[in-house]
Request: fold
Amino acid sequence: MSLPALHVAVVGATGMVGREFFRVLEQREFPVASIRALASERSAGSRLVWRGASLLVEALRPDAFAGVDVALFSAGAGVSRAHAPTAVSAGALVVDNSSAWRMAQDVPLVVPEVNPDDIGLHHGIVANPNCCAIPLTMVLEPLRRRAGLERVLVATYQAASGAGWRLVRELEEQTQALAEGRQPQARHYPRVLAGNVVPGGWREGSNGYNEEEVKIVEETRKILHQPELRIAATCVRVPVAVGHSLAVFVETQRALTAEEAIAVLSAAPGVLVREGDDYPTPAEVAGSDKVFVGRVRRDLSSPCGLACWVVADNLRKGAALNAVQIAERAIRMGALTR
Amino acid sequence: MSLPALHVAVVGATGMVGREFFRVLEQREFPVASIRALASERSAGSRLVWRGASLLVEALRPDAFAGVDVALFSAGAGVSRAHAPTAVSAGALVVDNSSAWRMAQDVPLVVPEVNPDDIGLHHGIVANPNCCAIPLTMVLEPLRRRAGLERVLVATYQAASGAGWRLVRELEEQTQALAEGRQPQARHYPRVLAGNVVPGGWREGSNGYNEEEVKIVEETRKILHQPELRIAATCVRVPVAVGHSLAVFVETQRALTAEEAIAVLSAAPGVLVREGDDYPTPAEVAGSDKVFVGRVRRDLSSPCGLACWVVADNLRKGAALNAVQIAERAIRMGALTR
Reply:
């Protein structure tokens, strides 16, 4: 891209998504004039690598955003609530990966391949959606455009990295125990994850749903501009390091054959369809930027039903990549400032 | 049980389900007068433990069923097709855990808590259902009786033991590799299972579905006596040793609240409901005889929708236990012989 070079800040720089921000910015040759790595007092003083050089991690303080054009936040909802308005006041566009602002009415929630124009409506903050809502809407939007959406049911297979370093390390320790014939122990997560699948570990939501399931429902509706979309989810954590998978059942308003659905999805930006036994798995697609769709077939239990299997890297397209794409799109739209 | 002692044969005695047969028979004090362990030529000569004594594994030959009252088969569909008729001719009741006879019109397919009376219709063979169809129908039947069934969607999280010793060992080796920082290798299964989830590994079925998904659909309809039931499944193998889990979305004909559904399921035989954060996971319920149901809630995407999470030991209730229960029920019904 030949764009004016910008002053960038990454908040939550030492987290799993934070580190991915640096990798994605570098790989995509984002026009960086300067970059600041911001984190908690605890992480301040540590160092990251940026373009081959050492970058000091600084403590996040209110004056950290002076001169910053783009601030990428991924340090939890509390930090975003406390510091994003400061960054906006300092003149930065905030792309926020936390859930803090996603459902706020004047904050656009954007998947660039799905609802890019919403970026233009921002008042300083653009929210980056939940790591399952991003691949889900990437697959639903082309189907919606072609045939309308009636109802969506999702069961997830979510990687440990969705919960950050702590669960990734806990899973590694538990895997070590399993391999050595010891009993794996749960430390921070409510259940042992190695050799297991856990339909929980998220905070309570409402009506028996956890927060993750509520996010998928509400965010999918907002991104697709379909506030009444009938949609439900069951979220499950699986012993995978990186890569979220979704078993999706969709009812469209008009019937599509499997071949038509495959054609529609194959033409969708950022989506890669794998046919037959070439289905995607998370261990194989981790590190990729695409949303992979396999096992596309008619759901024979409904006249307009489709079933498919969706996999994406939750740290990249599910988080850091999508956020950087939002910033790139804002630049191209001339929508960097309010 | 004070029942006449019987002559029992276990076919496929050295397989994972075969060994579970011996444990279940012993634990339930099945009235065994004598027991024969039958297996392939390759396994013949090895030894099992039965009631604290050593039991010789014999090669399965056509004359193996002389004097046998109950033959429990779990050696694959080919062996069942070849040898079950011989066992029936010799006067045995065959309870067959393979898929060979499940959909045959004159062979009952039975979950004792769901359709016990079907046992009386046998002509020598009673089929034991698929390891996912058993827990699924245990949960669907009480809901069907109370409110009728309209549509069922299932996404599975299936343990390696469902595919036998070979995949369990392969998963162990791969887990070892992961723990040692080596790249796990797929040998027999089409993809690496450790650190991954795999929506395949079953033979091709029809219309884009694999055989496992077709079995769940067809067998559920047959067990519930609802041949037109609208039902679809996506089957996924997960890196778990024992214990199949199912994310289930059910639409009933009449609306049930979550509380009503919980009450109905709590009263169902063989079903254990776990509420709130006490959801079941496979690693925790492996070895149990119950079908565990958690996360029962309204599916807000449908006026008559329910969502829940079902877990059962695939080797016990999903296979050996259910088969032994069929035999016990046949004895009590006086339906051991045609």
User: Anything to note?
Assistant: Chain A has two domains: 6-129+319-332, 133-159+197-313. Chain A is about 30% helix and 25% strand.
